[in-house]
Write a structure and sequence with these properties.
The chain has two domains: 44 residues, no CATH class; 85 residues, no CATH class. The chain contains four helices and no strands.
Length: 147
């Protein structure tokens, strides 16, 4: 006796090759199995959920220590190179975040000083001050007032 196959044609035009159930369609295409299919999907998604531990932010020194440890482990053969690659990528992301946070802080301080300097010089009215966001805004206001 030949195995019955699901008669559904997929969106790409190919035939579904799954075995048919007693209603003539496979588990994935049968409306009668819809609830079981949704429950299976839900359970599968829950199994893949992991709780990530909360950890303090890395310092530059701790990042260097971790990179050295990863390097030593790869050389010793106790850490898979693909895992090491993933770890070093995450460490580089952490460094980029720290660098950008430092730059943002410095930029905010510089912009505040530029606004203060421009206000002291009287290069714009007090109504212009809240709109100034970047150094280029201060320059544009100065240009408008002929300075």
């Amino acid at each position: 006796m030949a195995r019955r196959q699901c008669p559904v044609v997929r969106p790409d035009g190919s035939a579904c090759k799954a075995p048919a159930t007693d209603d003539g369609k496979c588990h994935w295409h049968s409306e009668r199995h819809r609830e079981a299919r949704l429950e299976s999907s839900r359970k599968g998604g829950l199994r893949k959920t992991i709780e990530l531990p909360s950890a303090p932010a890395l310092t530059a020194e701790r990042t260097r220590e971790l990179i050295a440890s990863v390097s030593e482990s790869v050389v010793a053969g106790s850490l898979d190179p693909n895992t090491a690659r993933a770890l070093t990528y995450l460490l580089s992301l952490d460094r980029q975040l720290r660098d950008s946070e430092g730059l943002e802080t410095r930029l905010d301080q510089l912009e505040a000083r530029m606004v203060d300097v421009a206000a002291v010089k009287g290069s714009f009215s007090s109504s212009d001050k809240p709109r100034l966001k970047r150094v280029s805004d201060v320059k544009r206001v100065s240009d408008r007032h002929g300075e």
